[in-house]
Amino acid sequence: MTNRLTLSMMRVLSATAGGISFYLLFVALARSGMPAGCGKGSGCAEVLTSRWAGSFGLPVSLAAAIVYLTSLAGTFYVTNRRSPALRRTAWRLLIALAVMIAAAALWFIFLQIFVIKAICPWCMTDHILGLMFSIATLWASPLGRGERAAHAPGFLSMKRSDVIVPIVGGFAALSVLIAGQFIVEYKPSKVERLASGANADNGAGPNRTVQLFDGRLQLLPHQQAILGSPDAPHVLVALFDYCCPHCQTTHGYLLDVMKRHPNEIALIAMPMPMDNSCNPTVDETEPRFKHSCELAHLALALWKAKPEAFAEFDRWLFDSDMPREPDAARLKAANLAGAAALDQALADRWVDQQIALSIQAYGMSKAERIPVIMGVGLSPIVGEPQSAAELMKLLEDELRLQAPAP
What we know:
Elements (H helix, E strand, L loop, with lengths): L3 H27 L13 H5 L5 E2 L2 E2 H15 L9 H33 L4 H20 L1 H4 L18 H20 L8 E2 L6 E2 L8 E3 L4 E3 L6 E2 L6 E7 L4 H16 L4 E7 L20 H14 L4 H9 L7 H12 L1 H8 L2 H17 L6 E4 L2 E5 L5 H12 L7
Parallel strand pairs: 8-9
Antiparallel strand pairs: 1-2, 3-11, 4-5, 5-6, 7-9, 8-10, 10-11
Helix pairs in contact: 1-3, 1-5, 3-4, 4-5, 4-7, 8-14, 9-10, 9-11, 9-12, 9-13, 11-12
């Protein structure tokens, strides 16, 4: 006879995990930001917009919600009020689901820690609840209680051979889900558009000023770390982190747009480190951002010391599968600008002021993740576009860029 407390626990765990799954599914389908609490420095964006967040092109939260809902329903068919045949069938289903949930939880925890290298708190909570549900289910099952309950009232006899098929079925179902992650690449919408307020640009010249967010953010292109000419017709602003993979990809797309429209676009680079050693708005620094502040300081110092070398250094910082190590980055910057000039620039308060300005701009944007692309005549673009073509179309349409001659 199934212990009432254990059965109640199974129901609470499956209902709670299912509720989280439905919430994550709603966020994925709504395409409007990240789950609640996923602010600066969280791994939500990295996890939920990765290819591993889907299977066969659909959010994995859909499969999770269905599995947990089915598990919850199954718990109402293992009570003594049901016939032995129905109870036995329900237990086989619950055992299969428990095996699938436990194996899936371990798989997705592995992906977050070792592949994506970012943690989504909502996802991790869901996985932990799933593991707890699986343990409770297997322990409460006739197989799990063993001979100790053999003479208890209402005991349901099940042989070990009765659960071989459910166990194999649970692993098989997970194998299909994992296969779907490899067969069809999941490409969720990663771009969010935000309101920018009134923007203005007083035109080319040494005193040029770009005003964003109703004039609260004022940037002087001739005095900012910039790619391209500060007198280009269109000046874009990018908030990013040199340790952020989405920023790396988007940065490459922006360079493609600038190559397609030479002399029409310039890009003010505003490193916005997700590292609490220089960004007090980040509560806890995730491992992948541990060198963000150092790389941001080096990039801005390099521009201060030798502006004409900034484009090369900026490209070098992003031209790596993993974030550059600070020692290697410092050596590269010293080779480009000279060690003495670099040291002098690193000691300049301007570098810290620029990082503080980037943090302030990020707060003004109300974005929940990076990168953020802004500009006059452009609603801020948050997140990584699916392709260079998507970003190209957004910028060409909204900035009314002329198509290059064939």
